Amino acid sequence: MADVIIVGRPNVGKSTLFNRLVRRRQSIVHDLPGVTRDMVEGSTSWRGKNFTVADTGGVLERGDQIGESIKTQVRRALSTARVIVFLVDGREGITAGDLYLAELLYPHKDRVLVGVNKIDSPKLEDRIYEFYSLGFEKVHPLSAQHGKGVAELLDEVVKYIPEEREEVKLEGVRIAFVGRPNVGKSSLVNALLKEERLIVSPIPGTTRDTIEVPFSFEGKDFILVDTAGMRRRTRVEYGVEFFSVGRTIRAIERADILCLVVDLGEGVVDQDRRIAGLIERRYKGCVIVGNKRDLIKAKDKEIKEYLKREFYFLDYAPIAITSAIKGEGVEDILRMSTLVWEDYNKQHKTSFINRAIEKVIEEKHPPSYKGKEVKVYYAFQEGVTPPTIVVFTNDPKLWREDYKRFFERRLREYLGLRHSPIKLILRGREEG
Question: 426 pairs with which residues across the strands?
């Protein structure tokens, strides 16, 4: 858990303060109350001390299922945090919601700093005095949006942080769970962690931020990344969901491996194929996860054959069949991700690559184009993640797309890359 957690009712500026503390726009900020739901964590430093900070969802006295889950999450975090920043709205004054939270925080009062936010002019500074009535000794005026008073707040925060702590860095294979809304991405992460770390609800779009959780399994380190569900672009209005999808795209770019989660109860739909196409075009390692196994009666073999047909262009991706709600098959995701990661990082000698290419061409020579014969001179591996093969040829334009697909598939097989895509780069001889 984080060293510092920011708590408060909805729309008091918690995400704005969090972004300022971690010095980047990590948490989504929007005028709509209740944008943040899951805890978003980041690392920062001040006065030579390194520590972690968590942004939490807005706490309400009474809420729906999501609101109650947020409250449970915050309660759990309170017991482990070194410092609790209780953020209130200085312009609005004390509300019933603030009084409810103050009662919740009072058992931890020795670690609570009250941040009176939105005090962005000297005229408003007198408003902070009423907040002493909440029962906490340390009250700090600030403006998270403009940065006023934040340094003074941090000076107080670091008094609670031990000396000589190393900078906290997340390390491990980064696995991002992607897919449509409500296919079970958060439930799968919770099933792997064996705790309700992420908020789960039958309401589509519950997850809005990308959430990163470090995790170890069978001696290997992973970073599990939960992402917002991706709907078709034409159905995404500008606002919270627009920014959520943008962050999911960035999570895809940053991920080492993507777990494409499909709802077996609904079957594969066009949006699943679009997301799969996004993965293919970025040459990402992938595990296809058929979730909600408990909703259908088909055999695992039949399910895998079905998913292979639907995602034929991701033929290198292993398939895990899971039921997040029952915890079945979820560890297969990590074992398969390990296999993908190993292939994704394989480096081959130039001589081995050229022998493999000779075998592919012997099996099926590139067809001539407009009377011109395709010639292949030599090849080498330029890099990994993905394995990138550069092939020198007389004219890249002569290569037909259908033959390129055949060439890539067979080359992968000869190179022993069962679970990884390859990136094929064709260069004319003069480019060498």
Answer: 391
